[in-house]
Specification:
Elements (H helix, E strand, L loop, with lengths): L2 H17 L2 H4 L5 E10 L17 E4 L6 E6 L8 E4 L5 E4 L9 E5 L16 E4 L12 E4 L4 E4 L5 E4 L8 E7 L4 E8 L4 H7 L1 H8 L2 H4 L6 E3 L1 E2 H4 L7
Parallel strand pairs: 1-13
Antiparallel strand pairs: 1-12, 2-3, 2-14, 3-6, 4-5, 7-8, 8-9, 9-10, 11-12
The structure holds FE2/S2 (inorganic) cluster (FES).
Length: 237
């Protein structure tokens, strides 16, 4: 192996092990690195943690052009090292939020029940903040309005209620403190990407002009937009 490739491979392994120490323990970890991409605004400027309005839904596409992800600033430090299980019993560890307050999290915006996800036309899944005085932190959940699965974004999108069999697939984020920038570097948890592309093959072909374009890896940067700009019809439960 050439030295440059060796160094790259070591860095990739370090990120992967950091995000999922079960790899070292030989457990059934479910993390996979993809092309690291910088999260940016529409104008190409990097997303800074301070740019993200607390409790607002933001969306970007990763690791493929057709796979939407949530980016959320929960406005408080998340829990760390949460041990989770996928539907088939594979264990993994969700390491927690990133950023100066460890409040920024990201998940595939794809419900693990029947893969409901936001499209340009309509959306049934999003993070909802309970603003009532009686609200507990755990009541700020990602909710899928199709059959009411609810996920806790402060605990790795663990399933709180409903028919979802697994937590939402986590997006691994890497925060560069010096540059004050965020990169998406991989995924963790249930890998539902193959199922997603096979279930929505026809729709994706039409929407993207071919499955190859829908499944093209996102490269270098991923543009983050408010959910309200990603979909024209955000349905609430
Ligand atoms: S598709 Fe989300 S709860 Fe059924």
């Amino acid at each position: 192996m050439h030295r440059r490739n060796f160094v790259k491979a070591c860095a990739a392994t370090a990120i992967l092990v950091h995000h999922n120490p079960l790899l070292l323990a030989g457990g059934s970890a479910r993390s996979q690195l993809y092309e690291p991409v910088r999260l940016v605004h529409r104008n190409g400027e990097p997303i800074r943690p301070g740019d993200l309005e607390p409790h607002a839904n933001y969306v970007f596409r990763y690791p493929f052009e057709a796979t939407p992800c949530f980016l959320l600033n929960l406005n408080r430090p998340t829990e760390t090292n949460v041990r989770l299980k996928t539907a088939n019993g594979a264990e993994y560890v969700w390491r927690g939020g990133v950023g100066p307050e460890r409040s920024i999290v990201s998940y595939a915006a794809i419900c693990t029940h029947r893969l409901t996800h936001p499209t340009e036309q309509v959306n049934f899944i999003s993070y909802r903040e309970d603003r009532s005085a009686a609200a507990e932190a755990g009541e700020n959940l990602i909710t899928c309005c199709m059959e009411h699965s609810r996920y806790d974004p402060a605990r790795g999108a663990e399933v709180m209620s409903g028919p979802a069999p697994s937590p939402l697939m986590g997006i691994l984020l890497d925060y560069d403190e010096q540059a004050d920038e965020i990169r998406a570097v991989g995924v963790t948890g249930e890998d539902l990407l193959d199922r997603f592309f096979s279930q929505f093959e026809m729709q994706l072909e039409l929407a993207y002009g071919g499955l190859g374009k829908a499944r093209a890896p996102v490269q270098e940067t991923a543009t983050v937009v408010p959910l309200s700009e990603y979909t024209s019809n955000d349905m609430s439960c």
